[in-house]
Write a structure and sequence with these properties.
The protein is mainly beta. Helix 6 (560-573) packs across helix 7 (591-602). This is S9 family peptidase.
């Protein structure tokens, strides 16, 4: 269960607009997508560091990859256009070969799960203009060899190698089988919780391919009915390891391209292998492993000649260790690494043998993104919360930890995309009042060179709406100073009494109170504010970017302290003179839906109304990797699973409760809501509920989101907006 995070390519949906008069926000306008924000899509820096490419979509439906010059921001050329390729109507993603002589183009992509897709792929040769289809069938995760002569990919759980010169395809594994053996891509739970799909990689000279193999034989199956439009429903069956159940047995293998043989690598019975990454020396692979409790991480170095593994470093934690992609090998294969071992996420430099050279960053703040290291200038570039936990700034520092410089750190959210040689970076800036703007800066001194794109037109359009500002503050709850925002009606009158709706997610390491541009749910909150609600959000214990102790304070008691904080916050906010203490509601999605359910039960003296969308109702139903990271197994910690499960106290419901789920949710299964429904029925408690057929965890498609948010709006209008008689 991972919170969706917006990256450099922002996608927003906006509101219908009229210049004639100020308008209120409507659900139809929010989810109608009539206006979208200016963005830079699929930006790639060229190896020369002087130019970059962007994927553009033309009005005629054609797609192009266009090259731009960093210094002038002028278009240099169109590298490839689908209009010139009769075989392709359009493409939606691209990837250069290491030598930038060829481009892999993705077409006809279709989703499998959250991050995985199937598609038809082509290789375009920039010199000859030749277009080559990789496979007639839809495949997964193709990857060009470093010299651009071959493509490795996965099809039907097996790994294949396509030779671009001869046109021959070689099958590297033969035991792949649905719901049994997977080669080269991850299983469902790795994809969802370790956030990666492609589980193979080429070494630097293209002589070896390292890959993971998943044996799912002992993993229990989960099945979902798919109602569709045919006479009879069908059933989707896949392996899903619930807390305490068997995981796939994962192993590491090395394929020798020249010899054509595969060897296994012994990693001392590693339970999880969440990352593999080749070093600069093409004979060495780095591998990260975790034990089942996820509190003992080992970083291995694997000699690809002997297939022998040795431990570079080991980190242990009393609670758990998060997996990240913050690992960079320098020219001599010393490496930069991030860790929370001093209580905050910081950057460390280690030598080739894993020995600590220096802790590069220090302080009571978090490194939120590591951008890379410029060895020529000895500069480490990173993003952090040094300008406040709800803000983000971009900084540089020497590998010694000296001469730190704030490159862009205005209040709000600053992010950077660096050129390959670290001469420039494209700065993306937003805050709660300002939609993203894109500027070009010099990396060494942070000096702004020029503006690339802004959203001034959008700002003008939004002047036609009755929008309220987010008011950021903190609130002291249960001995902790918690971040909070509040949205009040535009015509707010402190002498009046308003209903309060609290929104939260509350999952471990998450952040909902952020000084960044608004998303679609914020605009729904604007609609509610225009109708007379006060909307508030409080990030309680367990949320992120305030240090490891704060984040891990909920360990072994997931949802207990988070629920206490929301109930206490609701109680404190209800004391405000402009809040009607008899009209307090809370809502959330996924983890937040679990919280909203718990709050109206355990906090039934505080909350009169609650909406839970796609909630977990018992962690016994959720997957191993996420759940056991925070609770260990049900056998080890039964109280941690059951004392905070709303299935065990439905009789505590007093207020108005709306429960919503998609029947095709492969992540938080509809089983959670069905069991909650049954528990409430048997407790003889009245409530409202809705099931959206075949919709996944996001509950979208066609008019689904419009219908859902109108239902939620109407529910709140009936039960929370008007004073109780």
């Amino acid at each position: 269960m991972r919170k969706i995070v917006l990256s450099v390519s922002f996608v927003f949906v906006f509101l219908a607009f009229s210049y004639a008069q100020k308008k209120q926000v409507t659900v139809e306008a929010v989810y109608g997508g009539e206006f979208s924000i200016e963005r830079l899509d699929a930006l790639r820096s060229m190896k020369n560091g002087k130019q970059y490419t962007i994927l553009n979509r033309g009005e005629n439906g054609a797609t192009t990859i266009d090259k731009f010059d960093y210094s002038t921001q002028k278009k240099v050329e169109t590298i490839v256009s689908s209009a010139d390729l009769p075989e392709i109507n359009s493409f939606s993603a691209y990837q250069f070969s290491d030598d930038e002589s060829q481009i892999l183009l993705a077409t006809e992509l279709e989703p499998i799960f959250r991050r995985s897709t199937l598609g038809i792929f082509y290789v375009f040769d920039l010199k000859t203009k030749k277009l080559t289809k990789v496979s007639e069938n839809k495949i997964q995760e193709p990857r060009l060899a470093p010299d651009g002569t071959k493509v490795a990919y996965v099809a039907e759980n097996n790994l294949y190698l396509f030779d671009l010169t001869s046109g021959d395809t070689k099958q590297l594994t033969t035991d792949g089988e649905k719901n049994k053996i997977i080669n080269g891509v991850t299983d469902w739970v790795y994809e969802e919780e370790f956030a990666f799909v492609r589980a193979f990689d080429w070494n630097a000279n293209g002589t070896k391919i390292a890959f993971l193999r998943f044996d799912e034989t002992d993993v229990p199956e989960f099945s979902m009915d798919v109602f569709g439009t045919d006479l009879y429903p069908t059933q989707e069956t896949f392996k899903y390891p619930k807390a305490g159940e068997a995981n796939a047995k994962v192993s590491l293998h090395m394929y020798d391209v020249k010899v054509g043989s595969t060897a296994s690598v012994d990693l001392n019975d590693a339970y999880y292998i969440p990352r593999i990454k080749w070093m600069n020396n093409s004979n060495y692979l780095s591998v990260q492993t975790l034990n089942r409790h996820q509190n003992d991480l080992k970083l291995y170095s694997v000699d690809a000649k002997s297939n022998m593994a040795s431990v570079l470093l080991e980190e242990k934690d009393k609670a758990y260790i998060d997996i990240t992609d913050n690992l960079t090998f320098l020219e001599d294969d010393s490496f930069i690494w991030t860790s929370e071992k001093d209580g905050y996420n910081h950057i460390y430099l280690r030598d080739q043998d894993g020995n600590l050279i220096t802790q590069i960053t220090k302080g009571p703040w978090e490194v939120t993104q590591y951008y890379g290291y410029d060895q020529n200038e000895d500069k480490v570039y990173y993003q952090s919360t040094e300008n406040g936990s709800i803000n983000r700034g971009v900084y540089s520092i020497e590998s010694s930890g000296e001469n730190k410089k704030a490159l862009v750190a205005d209040e709000g959210t600053n992010a950077a995309d660096f050129s390959a040689d670290f001469t420039y970076f494209i700065h993306t800036y937003s805050n709660s009042k300002t939609p993203p703007a894109y500027m070009l800066h010099k990396a060494l001194n942070g000096k702004k060179v020029k503006e690339i794109k802004n959203n001034n037109a959008l700002i003008e359009k939004l002047k036609g709406y009755e929008l309220s500002e987010k008011e950021f503050s903190t609130i002291t709850i249960n001995g902790n100073e918690l971040n909070m925002y509040m949205v009040k009606p535009k015509d707010f009158d402190a002498s009046k009494k308003y209903p309060l709706l609290m929104y939260q997610y509350s999952g471990p390491g998450s952040q909902s109170v952020s000084n960044s541009w608004l998303d679609a749910r914020d605009f729904w909150h604007q609609q509610l504010a225009s109708q007379g609600y006060v909307v508030a959000c409080v990030d309680g214990r367990g949320t992120g970017f305030k240090g490891a102790d704060f984040k891990k304070s909920t360990y072994l008691n997931l949802v207990k302290y988070e629920t206490e904080d929301q109930i206490s916050a609701g109680k404190e906010l209800s004391k405000l003179p402009f809040i009607d203490e008899n009209r307090t509601g809370i809502w959330g999605w996924s983890f937040g839906g679990h919280m909203a359910t718990n709050c109206i039960l355990k906090g039934n003296e505080v909350f009169e109304t609650s909406i839970a969308v796609a909630p977990v109702t018992t962690w016994r139903f959720y997957d191993t990797i996420y759940t056991e990271r925070f609770l260990r197994t049900p056998e080890e910690n039964p109280a941690g699973y059951d004392e905070n499960s709303p299935l065990n106290y439905p009789e505590m419901l007093k207020g108005d409760y709306l429960l919503v789920h998609g029947s095709g949710d492969d992540n938080v299964h509809v089983q959670n809501s069905m069991r909650m429904i049954e528990a409430l029925v048997q407790a003889n408690k009245q409530f409202d509920w809705a099931i959206y057929p075949d919709k996944n965890h996001g509950i979208y498609g066609g008019n689904t989101r419009v219908h859902l948010f109108n239902k939620m709006t109407n529910f709140l209008g009936e039960h929370l907006l008007q004073p109780k008689k």
